[in-house]
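Posting for a labmate who doesn't have an account.
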Amino acid sequence: LALVGLAAAFDKKPHQLSGGQRQRVALARALVIEPVVLLLDEPLGALDLKLRRQMQDELKAIQKRVGTAFVHVTHDQEEAMALADHCVVMNDGRIEDEGSPERVYARPKTRFSATFMGESTILAGKVGDSRDGCITVTTELGPISLPGTSPAGAGVALAIRPEHLVLGEAKG
């Protein structure tokens, strides 16, 4: 109980505990047997936003302290990004993408992964030119140059995140 911050609640009955305290008790009960791997299935889903963020920090700290691998199942992309060292995106029981949360977010391998891991606009295009590690993609909005390699004429889908757009006057 001390590990999960509930040493003072030892004598309390379950109905006397808040939702967050009940989650901590469940975690303590699971950790007491010292498992190698612990499956957490939507552990923060029933908590309000403030408590959810607090519990994210606590879960990460507890995991580091005890050294147990946590497999954290969630449909909340922000939670996955905040908690994961390694992220796996699944769709209908199939792995769509996996890797560091930063890589899965920034360079998703599939359209499903791109749309699941945050807001994005998918823009269809065709590779027009590829040289020196850069490609030019022809889109309905005009040509877009980016790092990468792909054969000329290949159809591609660009996932554009809102935070990557810059508004201003056109250059040139």
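Reply:
Got it, the structure tokens are right above this. The mean pLDDT is 87.
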